[in-house]
Amino acid sequence: MALRMVSTVVGYKLFQLTQSSFAIGLVGLSEFIPAFSLALYAGHRIDRSDKRSLLLRGILLYSVCIIALLFLTSSRTESRFAPSDIQYLYYIVIFGTGIIRAFVGPTSSAIVAQLVSRQQLQFAANLTSSSWLSASILGHASGGFFIAWFGVHNTFYIVLLYVFIAAFSISLVQKLPAANTNPHVKAMASVKEGLFYVLNHKILLGAISLDLFAVLFGGAVALIPEVAHKILEVGPVGFGWLNAATDTGSVISILLMTFFPLRTKQGKRLLFAVGGFGICIIAFGLSEVYWISFLVLLFAGMLDGVSMIIRGTIFQLTTPDHMRGRVSSVNSMFINSSNELGMFESGFTSRIMGAAPSIVFGGCMTIIVVFITWLLAPSLRKMEY
Fold first, then answer.
1. Where are the alpha helices (DSSP H) in the chain?
2. What is the pLDDT of residues 193-244, one digit of tens each?
3. Which among 250, 236, 229 is positioned nearest to 311, based on CA atoms?
């Protein structure tokens, strides 16, 4: 929730300072560059470290960034510095959170297998995904409410409290020794080992690649503001519900699958889920009726939740303990790049084709990707766990 609230509050504050959407876009870029660039090295460090201690240090360092944001939003700072100077200081702080994110994100994923038995791993993966999505929705929404009620500066005190609660929670976990790794292996060789493991593991690579291209071409969420305003002609409330539809659908399906897990044919169901997601995106692009648009995005989120659970379980069950950090970091690179590039692809094709044709094009390309994966990755299609 703290992570999501920071992006919401910083984006809001920067727009107030600059009146520029491009300034908000630079926030994402400031965090993406270090998170992507350090991902492979972070995986090497995660595999050679006590994951609990590494995660705790990362969260505590994140609190330092929140304190810096409290300093930037204080009335004394705003009176002493020009808005342009404060703007660049925001980017520096967010760059710092990106460095931390490169280590904390993969560690959060890699630590799960050390906390539960293999029999509980699928349930734990479901619970992790549902809590992350729930926090995403609540963080975005509550961030906006807290700004309205308490102001930007005081909202960061609440964010800081959340970070300390997270740090306290992790401190209750016992120390987790690093998996058996060769201490004499150099960082570059270790990084290559993790990357080559993913590239040579057909099922894991197929699942990650499917996610990469599905999000890349099916990134209709980036165009929701334009669709809501120009095509559906709804106000801020309608836009807010559309924006929350996919995450809401994902939470619904993940909660259902937590209690009623998929028992067979998970590979085929993954491909069908991503294909259905593409069909929903096409329907969203064709729709000019608000409730239809909302429902197809809700269904798209439900199908994305199914694929998210299966991909997460594949990662947890197929990755050796001594490589979880590196494989998780490679997975993080794919996910981060697909989200950022998906937004760029949607914006680029929208400028060429228009919003609706761009969305339909992305949905069609998602279905083509599924078809190609079906043909070229039979091991993924036949996969069961």
1. 2-18, 21-37, 39-47, 51-72, 75-80, 83-110, 112-115, 121-150, 152-171, 187-200, 202-217, 224-226, 236-259, 266-286, 290-318, 324-353, 355-376, 378-381
2. 777 777 777 787 788 778 777 777 766 666 776 787 788 888 766 766 787 7
3. 250
Let me know whether 302 and 332 are in one domain: yes
Q: 158 and 221 share a domain?
A: no
Q: What is the pLDDT of residue 63?
A: 94
Tell me the CB-side half-sphere exposure of residue 186, using CA atoms within 13 A: 2
Same domain (yes/no): 102, 199:
no
Q: Quick check: is 128 in a domain?
A: no
| 159 and 34 fall within a common domain | yes
On the 0-12 / 13-18 / 19+ scale of CB atoms within 10 A, 221 is buried
Judge whether 348 and 340 are in contact, CB under 8 Å: no
Q: Which of these, 156, 115, 122, 113, lies nearest to 7 by C-alpha position?
A: 156
The whole model's pTM is what? 0.68
The answer to the question of residue 131 being in a domain is no
Size (the chain), residues: 385
Q: Tell the burial category of 290 from Cβ atoms under 10 Å away from its Cβ (0-12, 13-18, 19+).
A: middle
Contacts of the segment 254-261: beta carbons below 8 A, 24+ positions apart:
254/126, 254/129, 254/130, 254/133, 254/305, 254/308, 254/309, 255/130, 257/126, 257/305, 257/306, 257/309, 258/123, 258/126, 258/127, 258/130, 261/122, 261/123, 261/126
